[in-house]
């Protein structure tokens, strides 16, 4: 009897460890992901810390796509906030490697394609005159891909709106079209239900900010 | 029951016991003890870790107990893993070593300027060639703004470091181009035949180049054609001198593409408005076409075909210097075909193969006449064809080193007739080469190679050793030296009359320093080149010519200091003398200027979406032959200094769905007088200036590209 009880408790103990493991993942991720909702996380130094943290979680877990996804997201964001253009290619390479892993674990992801589009835009920034053609095209193709994977993803419309807003009119940019696109993005945000608290849900405040610029 | 409670207690509290917190802290530095911020320090396999601060320090707590692996990673450094006991609580000091990343790996650079999108740290981008004002989208004209090249605008070709235009060879995807320039009239240089848009990479080597290339005493212009296009498109161009149209089609699976292009140029109407110095009496009219096909045969294999055909006719008449009051006419009809097929593939296990084949044919029918004087006009026919094949194998050794070896075979026919009297010959040329890039350390590389050649028409062989070394001092600066022997057959116009001639020879010595950062480039080179066995035409054809060239060159490019401005400055000092052809002694030749400088300035106005370009070039006067001078004063007269200011403006926009560029460019905008030399009558009594046929050329054109989705064509964040 004692033995039976003991083994039952042992099994129970093991189970709690397993639950603790996945709880640890949930806890760590929800903390890190909710940090990303505040703009303070996008200071260059803070982003480095975030990248490192997500890469640690990704490496420890290996089967979760989200840590890879967020590491890439932070890497591409540091391309945009950083002052040193010469670092962009290296960061973009790392982001692309993380996205490859995320995509293997979670194929045909609209979210991954959105980040790929951002990576292409970041690479374009290094030398717009000679890279415009190649990476501008790739950025556009990835958004299209993101849209085919999930037409309800609000980030697709956010990125399209952003591109329309910041593109000179001679090249097809348009404030009025950007406005329509960003309004669509906000509607999609309103309807969008993230799969979990730690699933990608960023961009709504930014969409509102862009919309105010498009007025 | 008590016992069970104990177990329960144990169970309830066990996570807390298991998860006892251990503090890990320390400092990360590089091997020079400089603190490293941003390092990811963590216990492997756990979430526990931290990012080092500005002073390199880090602190975190972990629940992992006992012996664990601590990892530290930072890009640009070798990742480090050490065993620690998390319970010791000691202050860790971690030292990271530099990783051999791309930035720090040195590449051979002496003598060469590269324009490429693929590689980092190149001096020029392919687009720079197109947007250089005054260059008229001509590759060679743009290259002339780089140090080492002369402003010889009265004849075609790249005259590099005291060498003639013949001493520069043009290669497309490794295959020699026998006639890279359009046929031209006397004193009017022909343009380069190939559009800069065809190439993703252009390397201009002004000396010390690889054993892969031969038959060029001075310089190699290595062009690498583009791979598959991004997507299908069509284009139309219209200008004051002609029109062009093209289609590029990318297959649905994005593994193959084809393209066709045609152009028509007629300078007749333009010359009706802007009267050139000479009077056009034929054309000038040019019809050109090209065809390409590319196929990705596997993830690493690529097959490329490029075919080009071009037909032109042009002729001028001008007052005769020999017979005052009479007119001289010169007309040329040209047909040129160039084809090139190459295949590259990885053979696995570090081996790569390259195979290429090419055929070209060029025909010039020239009629020249002093109208009313000669009984019959002189009828000159020149026809040359070249078939070639080339194989190269590359094997990577270790992370960076590689050896390359291969061979090439060329069969050339050179036909020439003067008033139906033929002087023909054929040549079989065979070459083998091998070279190794050996990295002693990632920042120190040596390239040792050699090339052996045999040509049947001279029935002689040569062996040319080549060596270069490069050392990278830090992420940006590097120092290189190069040495090499270069052999070249004499020009066909001498071989066809005397098959007993031998190779001409040049030996290069180069020392170079460069500093390349993302926003600026500084480069300087010191060179010495010794010429031997140059062809002399007096008293009979022989190889007794000799000469030297030495000098210093400086290049500075800055993309940062002025917003939206990119400019470069180049300066070349050249001291050269040679005794060749009919020269009575060793003198500075008529194609060499002592000082040459260029300023290329590009200003982009984002609000106007307009690019403004200015190119100013300067060269000191060149020697010319004055028959009235005594023999000891041979070539002692010099022309006036050369000044040219090219201006261009391009406006980028979209018309309906087509990406459109309007271009206005003016060469020699202020209309400075440019004199390249003089031509004397045989009695030395009269002379004519050699000047550009139009003092100022104004070009207005429009280029449209369709089928590219607007949004995808956008230049974001301008």
UniProtKB/TrEMBL annotation, chain A:
Annotated keywords: Signal
Protein's name according to its UniProt entry: Tetratricopeptide repeat protein
Lineage: Bacteria, Pseudomonadati, Bacteroidota, Chitinophagia, Chitinophagales
First and last residue of the signal peptide: 1-20
Annotated source species: Chitinophaga fulva
TrEMBL record, chain B:
Residue spans crossing the bilayer: none
Subcellular location: Cell outer membrane
Signal peptide region: 1-20
Principal subcellular localisation of the protein: membrane
Keywords attached to this entry: Cell outer membrane, Membrane, Receptor, Signal
Pfam families: CarbopepD_reg_2
GO-annotated cellular components: cell outer membrane
Protein name (record): TonB-dependent receptor
